[in-house]
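Hey, I'm writing a tutorial for new members on how sequence and structure tokens pair up, and I'd like a real worked example in the thread rather than a made-up one. If someone can provide the structure for the chain below, I'll link this post from the tutorial.
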Amino acid sequence: MSLITELESLIPNLQAELVRAFSLQDLEQARVAWLGRKGSLARIMARLPELPPADRPAAGQKANEVKTRLTELVDQRKAELESLEGARRMAGFDASLPGRLPWQGSKHPTTLVIEEICGIFQGLGYEVVSGPEVETDYYNFEALNMPPEHPARDMQDTLYITERVLMRTHTSPVQARSMKSRKPPLAVIVPGKVYRRDSDLTHTPMFHQIEGLLVGKDVSMAHLRGTLTVFLRGVFGAETRVRFRPSFFPFTEPSAEADISCCICNGKGHTGEDACRVCKGTGWVEILGCGMVDPAVFDSVGYDPEEVTGFAFGLGVERVAMLKYGIGDLRMFFENDARFLAQF
């Protein structure tokens, strides 16, 4: 059989094969078998140099004609299969049924607050990072200056999986992980879920926190105060007053609690003749904990506390959402009541 005859025989052979192609996947397999780089056409064309020079032009022309015809056959069958697929989809469609509007929903208030807070800090040059929710004792406690005998562990209500593995009680472990994986300077903001063995009107076993960390040269408490003041006024309004009180955290020294003027009574301590139920008549609401990173934490992650300083802070997202939106019961965030969520 001559080479030209072999080329011509490809057309009826492919036609017979395409009749048995009942899906686009079958069609693709046939296309590759005939037109692929190692297909029937390519194998015949590889023998072209074996022909006498005078016969090569005619064989080359015939090969191009056959290739064009094979491509047309594949494309024709593809159009037929796509049309059949469309008909199958439409078979179960009743055009007389009324149309349906797209589902209308809204973001969860927790999501809205996380996005707002992260957006503010991204505008200040912070990077949003995340870490594992199932954490080791080392990153959750020891790297943050809380050795096994430290009394601050008792405040965490920890959910242990094994003796050394637990559900993280705060997002601070990501700060330690960030410092171990990169060199200063760095500025990160860490949103995420945390877990504690606690459940009542103002506590749930799972809730959300956001931690922040800034490390560099000559970072001071003044930078901390200025950053958090900008952040809190960005969330609660430009007229919000901010104050800092001394406190204690094992991973910061000095440490502070940040308060804001009550957004329910505008810092007056009362609504009408009654004491404000949110601030208990003080005019102030505690909003977050913060402080300068303890040198012991820098030592544990390989930073030189003589070369760098930094500050860290952490807050509960649900607490911010409760104050921002006037929500009185923390459990409403987790009940999935559409009437509640539709307000946002």
